[in-house]
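Task 17 of the worksheet. Students: predict the tertiary structure of the chain below and write it out as structure tokens. Keep your answer in the requested format; marks are given for formatting as well as content.
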Amino acid sequence: MQKENTPQVRLDKWLKVARIYKSRNEAVEAIEGGLVKLNGERTKPSKMVKIDDILSIKKDHHFMEIKIKQITTRSLSSKMAKELYEVLNEYKPSEEIKEVIKMLERQERENRKNWKETKENKKKRRELSKFKYGRD
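Model answer:
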């Protein structure tokens, strides 16, 4: 089997060089969290990407689908970094939608805080069972 001579680089490195994420560590966390998909599938930070691969990226309620046009391992200026990829799809929610999302996230955090107070413990389950089924 003969290897292809197309340039390849790790996904996390490419995301950092393309200035999609500020640091490689931030890129790794996003990939492991499922926020970055390679050709429609979840992947690992060490996966080698090549030209014409398609990345789906979710970042701060912002969705982008990009096609890799160039591969490099060295850092570039922001203008040159934008030439590394082509944006196929992009969705940025309006300010109203962002406010609604923030409100829902805040509400969800509050519900998680109150969850422990309403959670049934062993004693409550026994009392409920005794009440429902008349058991000791």
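Marker's comment: The beta strands are 9-10, 36-38, 41-42, 48-49, 54-59, 62-68, 85-91. The mean pLDDT is 88.
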